[in-house]
Specification:
The protein contains 11 helices and 11 strands. It has a 6-stranded antiparallel beta sheet, with helices on both faces. The chain is rod-shaped, with a radius of gyration of 59 Å. The two termini are 37 Å apart. Helix content is 63%, strand content 18%. The chain has 454 residues and is α+β, with helices and mostly antiparallel strands. It folds into 3 domains: 68 residues; 261 residues, 2-Layer Sandwich (Beta-Lactamase), CATH 3.30.450.20; 111 residues, no CATH class.
């Protein structure tokens, strides 16, 4: 009972305490793992978002610088055309048709050589077009309502760059670069105007800004308002509000990139102001949501990897806890099995001792009693008690002689008892003979009982 209590104490106290400690260790490790991995994944995702937005800002800013450089190149081509024809226009009195034709042909040749130039024309002091590169003689058209004429008439610095307008002859949107020829007193004698196709820039912007929800354009920053020179044909919620926001950005810093709430949603905007031509700047924009599309996919992949790793660690912790519990249970079963073997060995020792004592008490000893073999087998089994547990046939071989002996003894006792009852019945028939007969019957009963007990 003491060993059993000890084993029970070990099984219920030490084993359970060890199991709880191991289980707490596993789940504590899981919690720390989830905390560390979750923190690392969170920091990685945050750092990736910052890096992605910085990359988008750099790309939009670089594209804005590219568009601004391209606009400067187009304006320089227009300036070259104006400079090439300026001496002839200054010497032309606007009435000599031969000089007018020579100017037309030279101006047309210069315009055709540059694909971004839509056309060129000359306006006299009254604001009427007297020559253009589309046909000669040219049909007179009044230009007094055009922005460039108003700017020249107001004495604006040259070259005068006017915002996007639809051509009166071509019907195409274009912006203009112009210079005036003035007399000795500063009055306007003629204005040479070169129109640049807006669609030329639009096609460039569409090919360069290929990201979703892209915006790009070339703008002119004025004192009162910002004019559009060219822009990508994209839907805009509030164009006027967008122009105001772009003007504020360009006035604040000549060249930069930032995340602003533009056109109804947060966008990454990059802009660059021309250093050659005052007020001209290019801007590109991209939706933050579209810019972070790839980042969201990467973040979901990182998060899924973290969750899967946590689930795997949890499964490992569960398996480890169960394995430890199974190992402790196996140790307990081994300990209990050893105690069972010890008790079986003791019981076999007692059986062997009883059999040996009975064998020695029998008189004669000439005949071999079946219990002799059982005694020898029990002594052998004491040395190998586990064989009795593993092999039931070994236990049967040990107990067969004892069964035979017990069966024979039972039969002997049964026969003796039968003879006793038979003889006692015969003696009872002579009870009438007297007291001597009763004494014989009682003597027979004593001998019969002693014989049956033997």
């Amino acid at each position: 009972m003491g060993v059993e209590r000890l084993l029970s104490g070990l099984g219920k106290n030490a084993t359970h305490a060890l199991g709880r400690a191991m289980s707490r260790a596993w789940w504590t490790a899981l919690a720390l793992y989830c905390l560390v991995v979750g923190s690392l994944i969170g920091l990685s995702i945050a750092a990736d978002r910052v890096a992605t937005l910085r990359l988008v800002e750099n790309s939009t800013h670089s594209l804005a610088r590219l568009f601004a450089a391209h606009a400067e190149s187009a304006i320089e081509d227009a300036e070259t055309t104006i400079a090439a024809i300026r001496p002839q226009v200054a010497a032309w009195d606007k009435r000599d048709p031969e000089v007018g034709r020579r100017i037309f042909e030279e101006l047309r040749t210069l315009s055709i050589a540059r694909s971004q130039i839509a056309s060129a024309w000359i306006v006299d002091q009254n604001g009427e077009s007297v020559l253009n590169t589309l046909a000669y003689p040219s049909k007179p058209v009044s230009r007094r309502d055009r922005q460039y004429y108003k700017l020249h008439d107001g004495g604006a610095p040259e070259p005068v760059i006017a915002g996007q307008e639809t051509g009166a002859v071509t019907g195409q949107p274009r912006f203009t670069i112009s210079r005036a020829i003035r007399g000795p007193t500063g009055e306007i004698e003629a204005i040479i105007v070169v129109g640049v196709f807006s669609r030329y820039f639009e096609s460039l912007y569409r090919e360069a800004a290929v990201w979703p929800e892209a915006r790009a354009g070339l703008f002119l920053l004025g004192e009162d308002q910002t004019s559009i020179l060219a822009r990508m044909n994209a839907p805009t919620i509030n164009l006027d509000r967008t122009l105001v926001e772009l003007s504020e950005l360009a006035r604040g810093r000549p060249s930069a990139a930032a995340i602003t709430y533009t056109d109804g949603s947060p966008r990454v905007v990059g802009w660059h102001t021309s250093t050659k031509y005052n007020g001209v700047f290019a801007a590109t924009a991209q939706s933050v949501s579209a810019a972070l599309a790839d980042w969201r996919r990467r973040s979901m992949a990182f998060a899924a990897m973290g969750v899967l790793s946590a689930v795997g660690f949890a499964a490992l912790a569960t398996l480890g806890t169960r394995a430890g519990r199974a190992e402790r249970e196996a140790m307990r079963q081994t300990l209990l099995l050893g105690e069972v073997h010890h008790r079986v060995k003791n019981n076999l020792q007692i059986v062997a001792s009883l059999i040996e004592a009975g064998r020695r008490q029998r008189a004669g000893g000439a005949l071999r009693h079946p219990a002799d073999g059982a005694g020898r087998r029990s002594r052998r089994s004491q040395r190998h008690p586990r064989s009795l547990v593993r092999d039931g046939r070994a236990l049967d071989r040990l107990l067969d002689p004892l069964r035979s002996w017990a069966t024979g003894t039972d039969r002997c006792r049964s026969g003796a008892k039968s003879d006793y009852h038979h003889q006692r019945a015969s003696y009872q028939q002579h009870q009438a003979r007297g007291a001597h007969g009763d004494c014989e019957v009682r003597e027979f009963d004593r001998h019969g009982v002693h014989h049956c007990r033997g």
